[in-house]
Amino acid sequence: MTNVQADMSSALPADTLVHNRVPQVTVDFWLVKLLAVTVGETAADFLNMNLGLGLSATSLIMSGLLLAALFLQFAQSKYVPWIYWLAVVLISVVGTLITDNLVDNLGYSLQACTIGFSIALAATFAVWFAFEKTLSIHTIYTFRREVFYWLAILFTFALGTAAGDLAAEGLALGYLQAGLAYLALIAVIAAAYYVFKVNGILTFWLAYIFTRPMGASFGDLFSQPVEYGGLGFGTIMTSLLFLGGIVAVIAYMQITHDGDELIAVPDIDNAPDGRELVDDGEELVAVRVKAE
Question: The dihedral of CA 221, 62, 246, 28: what is its sign?
């Protein structure tokens, strides 16, 4: 019979340093992510309603732009801020439009969409883990891992839209109250991670989901007319305002390399017999020793 023992004290030399293709999670990450969600929401409203393109035409246009942005993103071997965040803005729009089309054009309920996207997201994580043995965002350095990463992000935006709209309808909250409620929920998630040491992967993706409806709430607060509870800036001014914030933060990231992450990848082909790479979700240095 074969016995398997884990020897976490042994490590392979880090012969290769590769770039993570997605950014580290920093304060700047969450700031630009929130701004990107808001711009995505208001830009979609501008195309759909202000320009009168309609939901279907807007969906086709934004999906085409997203495919082009993802093509650029997948062509990179490292994190490039302006390309990555362009893809995030566009995928936030498309994720929102998927939910809107299911509800408005196909007649599905928000409850059904929330359940369906929850299942789709869970299935994505299950398949991701089955293939990669990790869900870490610190080790996105292969094509397959990046596919899983962006698919998960798409479903988080669609789920965030459905769950956010469902909660807004059920609680009948105003834009400001809804935004603050989601902010409080994210604060609870942050406390769970920093204070109670809840799993980082779980808390990251939960926060990622809920920043979508929070950003949408604040976007609507700025863009909607005063008589409907907004501040009356309109979709154009709101989009330009938040887009300016995104450009400023991304320029800072580009100059300072904030968010860049190097991964030490052991040369597993030259490992001693019986050793294999173990990804602990944070770094790729541990090996497992198999003893007969």
Answer: positive
DSSP per position, the chain: --EEE--TT-B----EEEE-SS----HHHHHHHHHHHHHHHHHHHIIIIIS--HHHHHHHHHHHHHHHHHHHHHT-SS--HHHHHHHHHHHHHHHHHHHHIIIIIS---HHHHHHHHHHHHHHHHHHHHHHHS---TT---SHHHHHHHHHHHHHHHHHHHHHHHHHHHHHT--HHHHHHHHHHHHHHHHHHHHTT---HHHHHHHHHHHHHHHHHHHHHHHHS-GGGTS---HHHHHHHHHHHHHHHHHHHHHHHTTT--EEEE--GGGSPTTEEEE--SS-S-EEEEEE-
> What's the number of CA atoms in the CB half-sphere (13 Å) around residue 16?
11
Q: Which two tokens stand for residue 208?
A: 């990622």
The C-alpha atoms of residue 24 and residue 267 are separated, in whole angstroms, by 24
Distance of alpha carbon 254 from its chain centroid, rounded?
20
Q: Nearest CA to 80 among 256, 246, 260?
A: 260
CA distance 248 to 219: 18
pLDDT number for residue 267? 56
pLDDT tens column, 102-142: 999 999 998 999 999 999 999 999 999 999 998 989 989 99
